[in-house]
Amino acid sequence: NISQNNIHKIEDGAFIHTSHLEFLNLSVNQLQFLSSSMFDGLMNLTYHLLLARNKIYRINPSAFANLENLKVIDLSSNKLYTLNAMHAVFNMGSLRELHIKDNAICRFLSLDITGLVKKTFRADFFQGASSLADLDLFNNYISYESSKMLANPPFKFLRSLKKLAINSQGGNGLKYFPANFLDGLESIPETFTLTPTFQELDLSNNKLSSLNNSLFHSISKLKQLHLNRNGLKSLNFFLNANLSRLTLFRATENDIDVITEEQFQHFTFPSFPRSQAKQFHLYM
User: Fold this and answer.
1) Are strands 200-202 and 163-165 parallel, antiparallel or unpaired?
2) Residue 165 Cα distances to 34, 54, 138, 169, 190, angstroms
3) Whether the model pTM is above 0.70
4) What is the dihedral sign for C-alpha 201, 202, 203, 209?
5) pLDDT at 262
6) Counting beta carbons within 10 angstroms of the beta carbon of residue 113, is it exposed (0 to 12), middle (13 to 18) or buried (19 or more)?
7) For residue 91, which of 20, 57, 128, 235 is within the disulfide window of CB 3.0 to 4.6 Å?
8) Are 134 and 163 in contact (CB under 8 A)?
């Protein structure tokens, strides 16, 4: 642990004789550039490489090439404004957790030798990091100009992802949420914990064969749920799903073959005068 110093440079090969290291903390220093040979010798670095709160703005594409067993990198609170600066990280097949919050990463800024080029926050940036289970993109500048379908959804290759933090985006934030923005994410158990006031959710046209009822626990105010054209086998996710305010449910063109009493028994609607009776619309 050599965090909280004034280290502004690490010479190439500095760690060549420390092959036993499994954890390295370089947080809160003055590093600006990660070279191709800076971490040579750290072939057993497995658990954490902590680089948060430096001034890193550039990473050589081969900087992490020899860290074949590393599971966690924390690059939070640096100056990695562009997606090109992150390519070295996105190509790490062993990585399970990546923390890049508070970097001012933008949707379309990608700096190369020709200058500033528009480049969408898209799937191929994560193509080499398909083993990621935890991705922290909190407090950057990711945004979209509309809610239209994306040609290359950004998380398309992250099928192992279990946790995604993308809240608190600067600028206009995620004012527009593309319809297929979350395509590829097959298991995100805490997806809606930060959106308790959701009233309508449309997950149609995906390949969802099953859903866990815990997915809905934090969005109990949901009024409309659309699950059309998926591969759902049953409605068991309604059991204890805490969706008592639901008034519209659509699940057309699925593979549901049986509906049971238990699946709907928890829809306990409050008593209204007949003139104000609450209606529940079911489309299957």
Assistant:
1) unpaired
2) 25, 21, 6, 10, 9
3) no
4) positive
5) 76
6) exposed
7) 128
8) yes
**Bridge partners for 151 per DSSP:** none
| pLDDT of amino acid 172 | 63
Partners of residue 49 on adjacent β-strands: 24, 73
With tokens 């390519």, the residue in question is 87
Token pair 């890049």 in the structure block, residue: 100
Q: Are 63 and 88 in contact (CB under 8 A)?
A: yes
How far the first Cα of the chain sits from its last, in Å, is 58
73 close to 52: Cβ distance less than 8 angstroms? no
Both tokens assigned to 91: 């190509």
Output the six-digit token pair for 84.
């090109």
Q: How far is CA 117 from CA 142, 153, 274, in A?
A: 16, 19, 61
Phi/psi for 41 (5° steps) reads 100, -15
Characterize the bridge pairing of strands 58-59 and 72-74.
Answer: unpaired
